[in-house]
Amino acid sequence: MQEQLYRVLVINPGSTSTKIGVFDNDVLIMEKTIRHSSQAIAGFSSIIDQYAFRKQTILEALDEEGMNVSNLSAVCGRGGLLRPIEGGTYSVNETMLEDLRRGYSGQHASNLGGIIAFEIASGLNIPSFIVDPVVVDELDPIARVSGFSLISRKSIFHALNQKAVARRYAMDKGRKYNELNLIVTHMGGGITVGAHSGGRVIEVNNGLHGDGPFSPERAGTVPAGDLVELCFSGQYYRHEIMKKLVGQGGLVGYLGTNDAVTVEKRIQKGDKEAELIYEAMAYQVAREIGSASAVLRGNVDAIILTGGLAYGKGFVESITERVNWIADVAVYPGENELQALAEGAVRVLKGEENAKIYPLG
Ligand SMILES: Nc1ncnc2c1ncn2[C@@H]1O[C@H](COP(=O)(O)OP(=O)(O)OP(=O)(O)O)[C@@H](O)[C@H]1O
Ligand SMILES: CCCC(=O)O
């Protein structure tokens, strides 16, 4: 019998781009990255204000590629800063739309994913979904304790790519994801290191404005007392400090660029400051992996390195030589987010899974 074919449009809005793909089941038939210049983005005062502009660019891109939207079975967007929820595929509903519009847990480009998916899908009378948003929260209770009773640790991380790559690793090894203990390290504009056990991410750093290694544009963990002193020194406004932590932190703060390729070129030309900072970023990633290995009591099947920085050979080597005594290191450069969105939607369309209802419980 012929397999039923579902055509799914997937939408992944990032800070400087909107990536879209069209899949027939899990097979990619069209992919496009629409880049937004900083001038185009700067014209909007908030993420949500970009909604009509981004939706229009998506529809134009589909039109240019000759994609007839009336053949779609569903639309799936990357979910944003919602309430903390467990991983999986969720139907877009009114509560979710409201939370995405007001940025329940903050502002992030992916807040637009579910909204645009819903708008396109409802015009076609087809379902819309989100999959594994950045707020997926499967932390063990012990991981929430920060040590400061007024603040709990939060789970904000690259859930979509971490889960997709972990599943891919399991498939490559002929194993089931939920049988493995994995340390998955996503290294992009932000860096998150997750301890995956029994199919759940029981510990992970909050890669947005929480903790963990510094990254191309984020500060990660900073000494708390010194940060408090700086906040009250009268030198900076609140939004300026926030920007120094997220956006202008990490490599940007030290070296003026978020582009690791540029940093590598500077190192090749003998820039010692660039060498120290780049090495420090690898050192902090390795330190976070070591910490995740303790969470898993040393019972680690593999350490997985993924995201754009995993293309950097020297960077990967520098991490690997510090952590390969813990477990084998597998490298999956780049990200697999469009594919993961499509697979999440198709699992539901085929009836292999039920779509979850937001918010759970
Ligand atoms: N070939 C390469 N060698 C070294 N670094 C690379 C290479 N290609 C990309 N990078 C670096 O990867 C980083 C961006 O990674 P990525 O594209 O995963 O981030 P993003 O999607 O913008 O953010 P995030 O992954 O946090 O959502 C940049 O610093 C970029 O310079
Ligand atoms: C940490 C959440 C995803 C991102 O890097 O923006």
From TrEMBL:
GO molecular function: acetate kinase activity; ATP binding; butyrate kinase activity
Record organism: Planomicrobium soli
E.C. designation(s): 2.7.2.7
Catalytic activity: butanoate + ATP = butanoyl phosphate + ADP
Family: Belongs to the acetokinase family.
GO BP, one annotated term: acetate metabolic process
Compartment annotation: Cytoplasm
Pfam families reported for this sequence: Acetate_kinase (PF00871)
Keyword Cytoplasm: yes
Keyword Oxidoreductase included in the entry's annotation: no
Name under which the protein is recorded: Probable butyrate kinase
GO cellular component, one term: cytoplasm
Catalytic EC class: transferase
Gene: buk
Keywords tagged on the record: ATP-binding, Cytoplasm, Kinase, Nucleotide-binding, Transferase
